[in-house]
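Can't paste images in this forum, so I'm doing it all in text. The chain is below; anyone willing to post the predicted structure tokens underneath?
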Amino acid sequence: MKKKASYGAWPSSISTGLMVSGSIGLSQAILFDSTVYWLESRPTEEGRTVIMRCPVDTQNPAADSQEVLPARYNCRTRVHEYGGACYLPTAQGVYFVNQADQQIYRIDADGKVTQITNDQNYRFADFAYSDVRSMLVCVAEKHTADLPEPGNSLVSVDPANGSLSTLHSGEDFYASACFSPDGSKLAWLSWRHPDMPWDATTLWQADVASSTVLNDAHRLTGGSNESIFQPQWSPDGELFYVSDKSNWWNLYRYSSTGSHCLYAMEAEFGMPQWVFGMSRYAFLDARTIVTSYSRNGSESFAAIDTVSGELSPLQLPHSSYQSVTGAAGRVCYIAQSPTTFPALYCGALSVRPEGGYDYTEQLLCQSSSIDVDKNNFSKGESISYPTGGGQTAHGFFYTPVNAAYTAPADELPPLIVMIHGGPTSATQNDLSLKIQFWTNRGFAVLDVNYRGSTGFGRQYRDALKEQWGIADVEDCDYGVRYLVEQKRVDANRVAIRGGSAGGYTVLAALAKTNAFKAGASLYGVTDLTALATDTHKFESRYLDSLIGPYPEEKARYIERSPISHADKIDSPVIFLQGLDDKVVPPSQAESMIKVLRRNAVKVAYVPFEGEAHGFRKSENISTAFEAELWFYGEVFGFATENKQGFKFIG
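Text version of the structure:
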């Protein structure tokens, strides 16, 4: 028999400590020479990122998994600030970027670590290596006082002495360099301001003349209004890539007769390139591709025959996939589901005599060792609802679930509307303790894929262009109305939370609608003009598409900035902010707090020393959730523990 208690005040076994204890982040799997490598981000080691490896044919993954990176190193690059692709296993050893100095190192087979580069003016990322050429290529980002912004180029690195040779320059950004199997050609992506990589990228190809020289570098495809993603050579030397020129990120093959779509589908085989090294497909052999794709907000896994063009769905129990890597008949990826945490899997595909495929997979590494009764998990319900301008918005709705508690029959639950960052990004129906922490305490959650989100085609993604602060706010507001009309949530107890770009939407929604009684901004944008003039290179022109070109549209920037409408905010707000944040500096939150305090609005501020854009240290992740729970308890009138003495400052 369940006990009765009001929504929001249910005791929960999903504590803030549980959320970080025994949990790690998994990313960037790479299959090389019958061994799978991956990265582990460890909150209990102050967010240190470690390189791991395990044989793909292991019978005992726990015993055979090894830590490659010595304890004094931290594998992380700050190119574009967001990083990604900070290591690469090769026959010569594992190359990696060390967080402390942003230089390239190599780990030899005996574990010896050798520093390769030693130039503090440069950061490095996104490696490619040719065994045929013994050639190491990467993106170099130069930071010197004489440059108006960091300079990016494609370089080769001499593994013997660390000297750099520029292979290509002149573009604002480079990514995804890859060698043909025989080492004779190199392909890569580039893009220029004001475009982001999901707006317009160009696919290049060049002949490799030597380890320091490229010949005949020329554009193959891409450009205005076409986003290219993940160029990759097949084992027999054909160049494949993903393009959204049909409105959907689909797979293409490039040949002497031009670009050819491998399989046309109203689905997304690509994703926004916020970090280097993202991978959605891999070759098992010259004829077989395995790939993940998103359709109507949910993900699937499939095999594609590159000769016939036939796509064969593989029935797997996962709801999302990332970091797909493969070779020689094996594939590895990081996947999760509505009831399982992210985990690294390795699979094998075999062709049935009657046609089709058999597929088997093995679990290699789990991101979480915590044991929670699955009866405490809320599963997201995919919803679509009408929004402004006669359009349709999407999201996942989670009802409160607790194995031991229920609420009085006449009570409706409080709602937390969650806003993903980006804003060019998406939320998925995966098990996340960041959601279950709330639903297990008696909150309902609406996780919104507002207009501008990925996974619904380019047209939906572009619907936010010059509409940021309008369309996204409408979609959150209309989502609340939709659930209130269905009598699924309490209209008087609705909060909104989001980080980074999501934090901007939180503050804009508090100023422009009456739907929300509280808001939580995690390193959120408050002043668009300040952001346009004081942020890192990668996003320095992002607002040109979201708001309009700056300074030509300065008046629009001012009008859309939450700080310009702070006088309209009367609901309590909590701000959580890393003090080392270079993407959204602390001054953004602090200027908003000053105005709200002046207006006698209840404000809480929790700053974190040593944290940047997002929280990595376990103690800070715990503190952030404890503070937010205390905040909702104060606003909505239910008791919570306040061991750290949080308080309002206005």
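The chain has two domains: 21-75+170-366, 372-636. Residues 553 and 622 are 40 Å apart (CA to CA).
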